Amino acid sequence: MRLVSGLALLLAACSGQGPRSAAAERPSIVSLNPCADAILAEIAAPGQVLAISHYSHDPDASSMLADEAARFASTGGTAEEVLALAPDIVVADAFIQPATRSALEQAGIVVETLGIAGSLQDSLDQVAALGEATGNPERAAVLARKISDSWQAHEWSGDPATALLWQQGGIVGGEGSLAHALMMQSGFASLSVARGLGQGAYLPLEEVLADPPRVVITAGDERAFDHPAMGFASDMAHQELDPNLLYCGGPTIPRALTRLAEIRRQVQ
């Protein structure tokens, strides 16, 4: 993850121009990264974020609550749209088109990227980095404490229940993913990890029935659970998890933990 180069100069330049509004004292931002959107919505000063990504305005793709996302304008991610807003900083993901990045940088805009958080610490590091980058370290520290407190509050102390997190297309959450870390923290032992499957691996229905877990948690439209053969695994519970809770870390973590805790109590 890279989120510091060039930003100290922007912050220093902004800080020496006399008394202004809270947003004016900080660099203006356009986010093209839906995971950064959710963090910036909580830590940025009012008016500092000029636009968020269009993904956050799509209920099927957003990790933000709808009323939160509606507070911000959005862009389709094109260089032309961003240049028209003239931000100081653009926060993108690692897959930003080279031509788009080049056009923004040639206009003097600092382009920073945010990777995929694979753990609690990754997510906390991203919150801290965005706080420093945008001149909001104190607000970022408050969000980080909220996330950490929720993580500790949801730590399961009893025996884990064997679970399969089945995402759309039959893929599973593997070791080294935030989804797996969330399940472990909530009292689940991952069936897919026990079988050595990595993040995004495919687990067919036959293998699930051969050694069924205590609970199958489906996130998204996973049709395999509706297969008639699933009726033979009568002791296997089924719970649903909003897939939007697995797209990003940051402010989504407390909501994901709350839902997983509900599932764990029902399984118990």
Structure description:
- It is a single chain.
- β2, α3 and β3 form a beta-alpha-beta unit.
- It contains 11 helices and 10 strands.
- The longest helix is centred in the middle third of the chain and has 17 residues.
- The chain has a 5-stranded parallel β-sheet, sandwiched between helices. Strands 6, 7, 8, 9 and 10 form a 5-stranded mixed β-sheet that branches.
- About 7% of the residues have low confidence.
- α6 packs antiparallel against α7.
- With 268 residues, the protein is α/β, with parallel strands linked by helices.
Observed structural traits:
268 residues; 5-stranded mixed sheet; 11 helices; single chain; alpha/beta; 5-stranded parallel sheet
Output the structural class. alpha/beta
In angstroms, what is the radius of gyration? 21 Å
Shape descriptor: elongated
Indicate the percent of residues in helices: 25-40%
Instruction: Calculate the terminal CA-CA distance, rounded to whole Å.
Output: 39 Å
| Main sheet record | 5 strands, parallel
Counted by DSSP, the helix tally is: 11
Sheet with most strands: strand arrangement: 3-2-1-4-5
Average pLDDT taken over every residue: 86
Strand content: 5-15%
In total, how many beta strands? 10
Give the low-confidence spans.
Answer: 4-21
| Element pattern in H and E | HEHEHEHEHEHHEEHEHHEEH
Quick gist of this model?
With 268 residues, this protein is α/β, with parallel strands linked by helices.
